[in-house]
Design a protein that fits this description.
single chain; about 260 residues; alpha+beta; two-stranded antiparallel sheet; 8 helices; 10 strands; about 50% helix; about 20% strand
Length: about 260
Amino acid sequence: FFAAATVIILTHEFAHGIAARVEKVPIKSAGIMAALVFFGGFVEPDEEKLEKASKPSKLRIIAAGSATNLVTFFLVFLLLIGLFAPSSAVLIDGVVENGPAAKAGLQRWDVFYAINGTPILTVDDFRQYKTEHNITSGQNFIFSTYRGNINVTAETDPSGNVSFGIYPLNYYPCRLEISPVVTVNLNNFLNWLFLMSGSVAIFNMLPLYPFDGDKFVYYSLENVVKKRLHEVRIFYNIVCFGLIALNIVLTFVTGLAPF
């Protein structure tokens, strides 16, 4: 998450700086900053020179950050499709201490693709297998893993459920044939980058202060609304903020409703 956030912030801010330099607008300051576990960046164009620039130049500088995020979104989407195959096994994200899997020798980052010869391609397949076979405590099961077959004996956990003591995740194998550890972390990083780049590209262009969308709409309306432009700016900020607030409220109301 933090690695993806760092990439998003740096590319977004530096895109503004590069666009400003291309449009001949000086940069007052720019740099990289470190905050706890991730890095960020900032670019501050000369506001006076920016105000004097032509409207197309202003709009290009303002939109550069979100445009870069949007390009990142599509590039990462292509990477995810190209690098990773559909789920073809189950990754063990963790095992219960002294649980059946741990006792049998299964450990985090192990990958299994069959139980007693039945293919297990997803976590849903794993759950369905447990349900259909009515597993009882003391039963033995052969897990087919990349390290070979491992015999696991099901046990009753403290909550009274029969389990293997496994925390499963879908495993999307990398076509580069790298280790499961690298595969999973690379997949997680790219998925965060995909989600965040698309979200930032859209959210940042909302006509709401202090996001770039506020200035973008303001400069776009300068020649259309010559009078009361300030009031119009306040109006679309209120509308946009109201829509966001309404989304948040309805999310909680819907989430708390009985069903």
